[in-house]
Amino acid sequence: MSTSSRSRSGGSRPGRSDDRTEFDIWLAETFGQEGAFTALVMLVRIEELKVEPLASTFISFIGDETRWAEIVQLFAGSGKTWDGAAFFPVLDAGGPLLNAEARARLRALESRIKEDRLTLNSGAFFDAWGRRMQVEEVTRN
Fold this sequence. Notes:
By secondary structure, the chain is an alpha+beta fold. It has one domain. Helix content is 28%, strand content 27%. It contains 3 helices and 6 strands; from the N terminus they run βαββαβαββ. The protein has helices at residues 22-34, 68-76, 99-115; strands at 2-3, 37-47, 50-61, 84-90, 124-127, 133-134. The strands form 2 sheets. A 4-stranded antiparallel beta sheet has the order 3-2-4-5, sandwiched between helices. The chain starts with a strand and ends in a 7-residue tail after the last strand. The model is unreliable at 1-16 (pLDDT under 50).
């Protein structure tokens, strides 16, 4: 497992707060490129050599005002102790998915992640502090 070496703030932009996380920056950039979208989300527990899926959900973003602290509060409702969250942006005809379509795509994503944890890297994967990270393949000696 690796996390970004950038500072927790992820840098700053004119007119923006310097305390933004890498998630906050990712959301602003993704919304700027795509407009409103749905993100399929997988919460995971990270152990020394293991990444375990815990729970999944989907969130429709219709703006970029949401901050990492709000996402963490939302995930607290899952009742799970999680270490990472992967966000997979998806669109339907240029906007957020309808709930039934989001649920169907989420089930397919869950299956892909259960088969191959490296699938998490194809999304935007963040640790509990909103820093980017990725799953690295482990080989046995």
